[in-house]
Design goal:
- The structure holds two protein chains of two kinds.
- Chain A is of the alpha/beta class.
- Chain A contains 16 helices and nine strands.
- In chain A, helix 11 crosses helix 12.
- Chain A is elongated.
- In chain B, strand 4, helix 9 and strand 5 form a beta-alpha-beta unit.
- Chain B has three domains: 104 residues, no CATH class; 188 residues, von Willebrand factor, type A domain (Rossmann fold, 3-Layer(aba) Sandwich), CATH 3.40.50; 35 residues, no CATH class.
- The chains are: A alpha/beta, B alpha/beta.
């Protein structure tokens, strides 16, 4: 069964995702559903820590596909993402062949000898293409970290699920891999890449979703504490508080924070505890400093602004 | 009423009309996206409005900033089905090229109204010889709104000529990307094999992987306060043309920060100026550099990844904010960038020293400062930028 037919409806997909602990908005699930049905790559953009990479992992689980991850970085080259020839093996093979046959071999023969599939080192993209059924789930993580020329290498893969190797020809996907791209938007991606993908902007979760995530990830936290964590983090992300910080904490941070609070045997939040653990929520010195004067308002029992 | 098949019936037409309306509002949507959207609609069905919206959004929107346009347009169409019919009647091949960056609501409004708001081509550049190229006639009057609608023909030629002649030494480093070359630390085995295969399997030379030069990203901060008014317009025009090859971020600051990146993406310098003009609200006001950098820190810090950005600050340093704010913000800026260069074009006299509070704080932090006396002409500004970038 291909990924296309695994889930008949959006609800089915949502349930499956919840089953592995991924709680998503219906909007996002609709996009995932379409990307499976239409066999299109899905580009996820959003702030760090909103669950982009987690979605790929959860999806791999429910589809029963191996997750192949390509972590992008600056200066990434084709040979690190697509394929590379095993040059050492090629050299040895060439020497061995030459000593056996003498110097009778023509250049074409040598070339054919040396550029065989067995000397091809598969990198993530090629590996994803050649994964036998049920196929792979390819996560191209943080595409925005790679430079613009690199995006051009991706185009053929994203558009046709194939890779052209000059010496061998075109290698087509056996089963179209489910492909997820993520970007933190440190720069804008090229339109050519976006055209080939379905797009989804991922926002910070609403309170209910955050609660569900924290509950399922940190079941040992008391209900009261979980509520408080979700409310506190929700307030941090909304006005008027959010403008005081460079980077609001994501879901990943809320979960980490809840875990830390449980480890410290916290039953309810108070300014002191928040002060001691604020390093988990914020990673910038300026942000850590900015929270102190706001603590009183942030911990006020009734919502100050409608959240 | 029976609902038609998404691929053949009325729904397909409706989606096409909707997508084209979005395109008029400036979203990059081509025919393949539209057919994808129609296919997607068939898959999710039209029973639930939110599913339909999500499906269309996934197919038709590809930028975060376009989301709101989409939502408003979608809501408008759902509220008033009559609009859809109107949109369909507008399916004529007269597509005005919508410009990105115009405030959202008016964009949607305009697109829905189908207004064809094009630049008036009747006005020729020759007519607007209000300013002479030497930047000397412009400070007779202090205007609250920036008056740089478009360049006069002579200015346009000057800016173009200067961008060609004064090649700014845009900062570069050795990148991580490589090419085949004679020098370099690593051997280019792939190339070696290719060459060997052509030489009967003999390796005659060992080509190397040489690191390609890579342009460092620039962050340009241009002061548009009253004291800088004379320079801002032509300076922006010059920078727009001269820094094309580097990845760049550009912000104007006065009392607050204005993001000019959308404007700078436009290819045409006149279009850029028109849009910048529309965006800048605090033209010819005071300078609050500290506050502006704080704004940069909170909203755009992410763009300064890797600590490799070269900051080009063009300001007279007459800061009206507090010295403490400026100091702490500059410390932050320096920590997140490679170098901070300051071009100071205020000075009318030779014995200048940066002693005004703001200027002295700035002077303490910058990696390089260049003060130019009697800067009356763009030529000098361009060559000053050139000199400054060499300091790096």
């Amino acid at each position: 069964m291909t990924a296309k037919d695994t889930f008949k409806t959006i609800d089915e997909l949502a349930q499956a995702l919840q089953g592995v602990g991924y709680f998503a908005e219906r909007r996002l699930i609709t996009a995932v559903f379409l990307s499976l049905k239409l066999e299109r790559p899905l580009l996820l953009e959003g702030e760090p820590g909103v669950g982009k990479t987690e979605l790929a992992k959860a999806l791999a689980k429910i589809l029963g596909r191996p997750l192949i991850r390509l972590q992008c970085y600056d200066g990434m080259e084709q040979r690190e993402a697509l394929y590379e020839w095993n040059h050492a093996a090629q050299l040895l093979h060439m020497r061995a062949a030459a000593s056996q046959t003498g110097s009778g071999a023509s250049p074409q023969d040598i070339e054919r000898e040396v550029y065989q599939k067995r000397f091809l080192v598969k990198r993530p993209l090629l590996e994803a293409l050649q994964t036998p059924a049920p196929g792979a789930l390819l996560l191209i993580d943080e595409v925005d970290r790679a430079d613009e020329p690199f995006e051009a290498f991706l185009l053929e893969y994203l558009g046709e699920y194939q890779v052209s190797i000059p010496e061998l020809g075109t290698l087509q996907a056996e089963v179209a891999p489910v492909t997820i791209l993520t970007s933190n938007r440190t720069r804008d991606l090229n339109d050519a890449v976006k055209r080939r993908c379905l797009y989804q902007w991922m926002d910070y979760p609403d309170r209910e979703r955050e609660l569900a995530v924290v509950r399922s990830q940190v079941p040992e936290a008391s209900a009261q504490l979980t509520e408080q964590v979700a409310q506190f983090v929700g307030r941090l992300r909304s006005q008027p508080f959010s403008s005081a910080f460079q980077r609001a904490p994501g879901i990943a941070e809320s979960v980490e924070w809840a875990k830390a609070l449980v480890a410290l045997n916290t039953l309810t939040l108070d300014p002191e505890v928040v002060q001691d653990t604020v390093g988990i929520l914020f990673k910038q010195r300026e942000d850590v400093a900015a929270i102190t004067p706001l603590l009183h308002d942030l911990l006020a029992p009734a919502p100050i602004t409608s959240l | 009423m029976l609902l038609g098949d998404a691929r053949s019936g009325k729904l397909g037409d409706n989606i096409t009309g909707f997508a084209r309306a979005l395109r008029r509002a400036g979203l990059p949507i081509d025919a393949s996206r539209i057919s994808l959207a129609i296919e997607a609609t068939g898959l999710v069905g039209i029973e639930r409005k939110e599913d339909l919206s999500a499906a269309l959004k996934a197919c038709l929107v590809s930028r975060q900033e376009d989301q709101m346009v989409f939502d408003q347009m979608f809501a408008a169409l759902f509220k008033d089905p009559e609009l859809t019919r109107q949109l369909l009647s507008q399916l004529l091949p007269q597509m005005p090229t919508a410009k990105p960056g115009v405030p959202r609501k008016s964009r949607v409004q305009e697109a829905l109204a189908g207004k064809n708001k094009q630049n008036d081509p009747g006005k020729s550049k020759e007519d607007e010889m209000k300013f002479d190229a030497a930047m000397s006639a412009s400070d007779k009057q202090r205007l609250q709104q920036a008056d740089f609608q478009s360049l006069s023909a002579s200015e346009f030629r000057l800016v173009e000529k200067l961008a060609r002649q004064v090649k700014l030494p845009l900062p570069q480093i050795k990148g991580r990307r490589t090419r085949t070359g004679g020098r370099g630390e690593r051997i280019h085995w792939a190339k070696t094999m290719q060459m060997a295969a052509r030489q009967d399997g003999d390796i005659l030379s060992l080509p190397r992987m040489q690191r390609k030069p890579q342009a460092l990203p620039l962050l340009i901060l241009v002061d548009i306060s009253g004291s800088m008014e004379r320079y801002a317009r032509l300076l922006l025009a010059f920078l727009h043309q001269a820094t094309r090859e580097s990845p760049r971020q550009i912000f104007a600051f006065g009392t607050d920060l204005t993001d000019l990146n959308q404007a700078f993406k436009l290819r045409d310098t006149d279009d850029m100026l028109t849009q910048a003009n529309r965006q800048i609200q605090d033209f010819a006001g005071g300078t609050q550099l500290g506050k502006s950098i704080a704004h940069l820190r909170v909203h755009f810090a992410k763009k300064l990844t890797g600590r490799r950005t070269v900051v080009l600050l063009i300001s007279d340093g007459l800061d009206t904010g507090t010295a403490e704010t400026l100091d702490s913000e500059l410390v932050w800026l320096k920590r997140h960038t490679r170098s901070l260069l300051w071009l100071n074009p205020l000075l009318r006299f030779e014995g200048y020293a940066p002693i005004a509070t703001g200027a002295s704080v700035l002077n303490r932090h910058v990696n390089g400062m260049l003060a130019i006396h009697n800067l009356a002409r763009l030529e000098e500004l361009a060559s000053a930028l050139n000199t400054l970038l060499k300091i790096k």
